[in-house]
Design goal:
alpha/beta, 47% helix, Pyrimidine Nucleoside Phosphorylase, Chain A, domain 2, 3 domains, binds uracil, single chain, 15% strand, four-stranded mixed beta sheet, Transferase, Pyrimidine Nucleoside Phosphorylase, Chain A, domain 3
Length: 435
């Protein structure tokens, strides 16, 4: 069938055959699909959607469009964890060593941050010496030896997704459930783990702004994972305020170290434990959630989760003296407290705006080529539901220039919404999708 006929069929709302979807991906990869046809096809999908079978076929075709990791040499049930991206999301830095200390092997590929959300790879690179580009052989042997490795995603993992994503970005076709789900899951399935735990963020600082949308995306991804033969579960977690206390690269690493010592912020730890419990369940290292929680609390209090993190940093070339003495991390030159100009209760924090403020301080990338400043960021002192008086500190800014600081102060004040009435806290775990 000619590509134009496939586009026509989708435009008319008909379901495509597996061969037609495969043909689109094959011609995309061999270079014969012109951009104008890809963009017309994507727009037809946005208006007409893809059914469950079409979405699974597209995901598998994208998964197989490049390299796929073979992790069969790693013993045990390898569990991957993926977050759909949030502000202050340092969960991987805590949950991965935590479950690895409890015998769940974690072989994780991660990306860099773009836009208002940070990337785990950037955060880890704030540890002097830490290597994210490790060979497949070293990656596999590290997981076998100590249960956890984390590497930068190889450039040839799901290349069809890379091309499609770049086109979606410039043709207003990003926000379509099947396209988002197939994009995320094609990369997860190509990464080779046996089971996948998804953290679908929901709220102002996330891709999915409301819980209905987030649930529908999570259900689609869980079906795709299970349909491709990998046990997949998803949690929908709250992103209506930054996660934890700090936003910014080395500040978040320091916060993760504190959490591994048992001093994590309560709401952040709720997310860590909920995801960790799912990882222990699918990794068959706990039979019930109660058992999982009990094991995780023990691994934090007896120091084994922290020791696992240290071993991981050492194995990937990082200087562990920074992990043992976090005060060694370089600091931003300027530290500035943003004071509240009104009294009441914090009703809402514009989370995406907080992520963008940290990005403009130099802590994130507006374009892929930007070099980030690992020292800048923000401490969130008041969170949703907290009482606040005029003159009290809402947030602390860490910056390297006065100009940036001035702009950031106004942005923080605009991000905080203070109400006269008492505000209920929103739960952190909004839903759990297991099939
Ligand atoms: N992350 C991805 O990898 N793809 C999407 O489409 C959205 C978020």
């Amino acid at each position: 069938m000619r590509i134009v006929d496939i586009i026509e069929k989708k435009k008319n709302g008909e379901a495509l055959t597996d061969n037609e979807i495969q043909e689109m991906i094959t011609s995309l990869i061999d270079g014969s699909l012109p951009d104008y046809q890809l963009s017309a096809f994507l727009m037809a999908v946005v208006f007409q959607g893809l059914n469950e079978r079409e979405t699974l076929t597209l995901t598998k075709a994208m998964r197989d469009s490049g390299d796929t990791m073979d992790l069969s040499k790693i013993k045990g049930i390898k569990v991957d964890k993926h977050s759909s991206g949030g502000v202050g999301d340092k969960t991987t830095l805590v949950v991965a060593p935590l479950v690895a200390a409890l015998n769940v092997p974690v072989a994780k590929m991660s990306g860099r941050g773009l836009g208002h959300t940070g990337g785990t790879i950037d955060k880890l690179e704030s540890i002097p010496g830490f290597q994210v580009n490790i060979s497949e052989e070293d990656f596999i042997s590290q997981v076998n030896r100590m249960g956890f490795a984390l590497a930068s995603q190889t450039s040839n993992l799901a290349p069809a997704d890379k091309k499609i994503y770049a086109m979606r970005d410039v043709t207003a076709t990003v926000q379509q459930r099947s396209l988002i789900a197939s994009s995320i899951m094609s990369k997860k399935l190509a990464s080779g783990s046996d089971a996948i735990v998804l953290d679908v963020k929901c709220g102002d600082g996330a891709f999915m702004k409301d819980v209905k949308e987030a649930r529908s995306l999570a259900e689609t991804m869980v079906k795709l994972g299970n349909g491709a033969g990998k046990e997949t579960v998803a949690l929908i977690t709250n992103m209506d305020e930054p996660l934890g206390t700090y936003v910014g690269n080395n500040l978040e690493v320091i916060e993760a170290i504190e959490a591994l010592h048992g001093h994590g912020e309560k709401r952040f730890m709720e997310v860590v434990y909920a995801l960790g419990a799912q990882m222990l369940l699918v990794g068959k290292q706990a039979k019930t959630k109660e058992e999982a929680y009990e094991k995780m609390h023990r691994a934090i209090s007896d120091g084994s989760a922290f020791e696992k993190f240290k071993e991981f940093v050492r194995s990937q070339g990082g200087d562990i003296s920074y992990i043992e003495n976090p005060e060694k991390f370089p600091k931003a030159k300027l530290v500035y407290e943003v004071k509240s100009i009104s009294s009441g209760y914090v009703k809402k924090i514009d989370t995406e705006a907080v992520g963008e403020t940290v990005m403009r301080l130099g802590g994130g990338r507006a374009t892929k080529e930007d070099v980030i400043d690992l020292t800048v960021g923000m401490k969130i002192c008041k969170k949703v539901g907290d009482a606040v008086s005029t003159g009290e500190t809402l947030a602390v800014l860490y910056a390297n220039t006065k100009e940036q600081l001035k702009a950031a102060e106004q942005e923080v004040l605009a991000s905080y919404h203070i109400s006269n009435e008492k505000v209920e806290c929103i739960p952190m775990i909004l839903d759990e999708i297991t099939e």
